[in-house]
Amino acid sequence: MRASASQARLIEAAPVFAALGDPARLTLVSRLCSEGPLSIVRLTEGAQMSRQAVTKHLNALSDAGLVHSERSGRERVWQLRPRRIDEVRRYLDQISLQWDAALDRLRDLVEDG
Amino acid sequence: MRASASQARLIEAAPVFAALGDPARLTLVSRLCSEGPLSIVRLTEGAQMSRQAVTKHLNALSDAGLVHSERSGRERVWQLRPRRIDEVRRYLDQISLQWDAALDRLRDLVEDG
DNA sequence: CGTATATGCAACCAGGAGGTTGCATATGTC
DNA sequence: GACATATGCAACCTCCTGGTTGCATATACG
Fold first, then answer.
1. ipTM score here?
2. Tens of pLDDT, residue by residue, chain B (113 residues)
3. CATH topology of domain A3-112
4. Cα–Cα separations (whole angstroms), residue A80 to A34, A51, B51, B64
């Protein structure tokens, strides 16, 4: 596995990180975690912003593949996509692995030189 | 562990995710991973932006605790803080755990009801 | 049908993010 | 000291983000 290949894969994670990088959105994710699938109105209760703002954040999370929704009667119910979370975790594992490998190479350089 | 407590901890991760949520910054992180500590000029080579822009991104990563720097002669050398990466990974573990717990609760509700 | 609820959509607005350029400062080298 | 290199700092600009409000639409319910 070349560094450039794994780097290209890592860069794909940027939109996901960006989606998680907002306190309001992280709060929504957390609530969907602890309370399960919820409608927009339910998610707006307790969130200190308008329903429309909540919808915007949910769409941002959806674009990143972190949540998905389904219309149910006159409600739209949102829930998490845990798979995507696991993918992000694997991205971070990749960073750690690359870092460990870099440390090894540096050590070898010192020893060889 | 109450949900509100773990949620509060999760929200603290937002700035770290935001720092990783930019392709340019993820590229810098990746390069520091694969090439080890680098000066600003070295990091600017290959990055398609000015040295000052690179510095801004490095400062953003630094604010999030993901990198740190040290002056060495007339250079400033930047390197990763792998500990912070591990912390973020633990945040994601927390999301997954909460999600699994939520699924269990939902299943119990169905069975009990 | 009429009414209340839940959502969708669009216009609008302030502030910050990400980029640039220009210039000042610090360090290495001769 | 003179010169080249590496960085720091500030002003400036553009665009996107995150928020709002207002109104339209869809569904439940009597």
1. 0.87
2. 455 666 667 788 899 999 999 999 999 999 998 888 999 999 999 899 999 999 999 999 999 999 999 999 999 999 999 888 888 888 777 777 777 776 676 666 555 54
3. Arc Repressor Mutant, subunit A (1.10.10)
4. 11, 19, 40, 26
